């Protein structure tokens, strides 16, 4: 988060609070005045209708009428009635003339006309003007926010000259490497354009909050020495329709003026969520999103603007945003591994005094699952704790206390991984890796990790193969076995199964379905293709028995694969334990390390 932007937000908030106070005060005043001027009308006293009053006067039943000049209410004393009544007089002038005429005619009415109560009359005037006043205030405010009130002042985005460079970003070597071409382009757009090279306009940075997405975006700006304009997606969402869209337009207008530059949109999912047809806030989002799409399409690559957007939920984004020419490049920023954490700790240790007993490496070992922001936070907390305890320098105990403090916060967000979960993930991933390495057709393991990524607790990556045109039935069957290897390991080692395998099972089921209904790989059903997704009636055409047969065939494929997976796990239990143990210790193991372990 940008410091200045925070202040900006605060100012925005202050404005809102001030507005709210004004509105509340006005409403309170209005209610007060209403009760003051209508006190008699609203109290227990009985009212008398105007026509009734005229009738009673004509009949000589009224003793006394008391009025205030300028007011439309009158107090009326009816003969033989204790209580005074109130009456609303539509036209006071005509009424007074009528009463005076009655008096002349011999009607014994006492007419008292009190002088105007200044306060009441002013406040009643105010009261009647109040709705108009409120409206005017709202309109002025609206135009101000639209930016029509003050020419050219863009206060909804923040421009900074970033001094941050790649040196300030620890770990993330691959990600930095991918960004280098963008830096080069920003520095020297001509060269790229002359060559006819297309540089991505939009890059999507995916990852949990605190993993350094903003940091890396700023570092790109810093490396290229170009301005950095940032805005958060949630700021585009406003209560006034069309405001979000106009903010997007202004943001890009400004960027074009100062290009070459970087636009950074944090939390893009706030505007870029999948469109749906419901109205209200949704349609406002649609306008904002549409404007963003228009702007992304509107500038040319020679405009030298790169739009970086951050999100933790790329799957939520509207597909239109991800089309070529928009955010067509995606970089996933995962949680740092042990080395990465040590590097981050080292960066944030700069400028702090440490005792000799401090070992940042061992802290890195104890902080699996922590983000870069969490780690920066730990060292800052440690410095605070050391200061409070009047230590000469930060001690190891101070850091341990800080880790505990930050961990408690993370536990509340349920982001700390328990030892039990870690063990489960380690065996699950080791299961995939071991099982697939025992299968003839499966690709070699590239990396196994128990560092959480997105919703997954860990991952097993495979080396990519040379391009292949065909996949054999055996290969698909073995793929099913590898996919179910995680679940099989959980079952056999821990004698329990978890939800961690849900994605594996989904993928496996889809492959099995395709084998039967798309590639005609079933012995009994033969070569047949049924597109159940596009046309659900196609299945009905073939009859219930056929549908049952497909289900049975899919089940057989999956059951067989699960059996093979369990068998492989049992046979290779020793290797499995080794790999899982190594994962628990190191969190991530490379292809070579894996080969060494299973040799
Ligand atoms: P995000 O944008 O992903 O939510 P930020 O970039 O705002 O995360 O990170 C918050 C802070 O955490 C950064 O300002 C920095 O102090 C620290 N941080 C995160 N990742 C790293 C990293 N790889 N190297 C150094 N510091 C980091
Ligand atoms: Zn799995």
Q: Would you give an account of this structure?
A:
With 599 residues, this protein is of the alpha/beta class. Helices cover 55% and strands 11% of the residues. The protein has helices spanning 3-37, 39-42, 50-58, 92-104, 118-146, 173-187, 189-195, 213-224, 233-236, 243-258, 269-272, 281-298, 338-349, 360-365, 372-388, 396-412, 419-437, 473-494, 502-517, 537-542, 544-571, 573-586, 591-598; strands spanning 62-68, 73-78, 84-88, 110-114, 158-161, 202-206, 227-232, 261-266, 305-311, 329-332, 445-449, 459-462, 588-590. Strands 5-7-8-9-6-10 form a 6-stranded mixed sheet, sandwiched between helices. A 4-stranded mixed sheet has the order 3-2-1-4, covered by helices on one side. A 3-stranded antiparallel sheet has the order 12-11-13. A hairpin with a 4-residue loop joins strand 1 and strand 2 (73-78). Helix 17 runs antiparallel to helix 18. The two termini are 48 Å apart. The model is unreliable at 1-10, 40-44, 147-156 and 277-281 (pLDDT under 50). Bound molecules: adenosine-5'-diphosphate and zinc ion (ZN). Adenosine-5'-diphosphate (ADP) binds at residues 1, 169-172, 207, 209-215, 310, 344, 347, 372-373, 376.
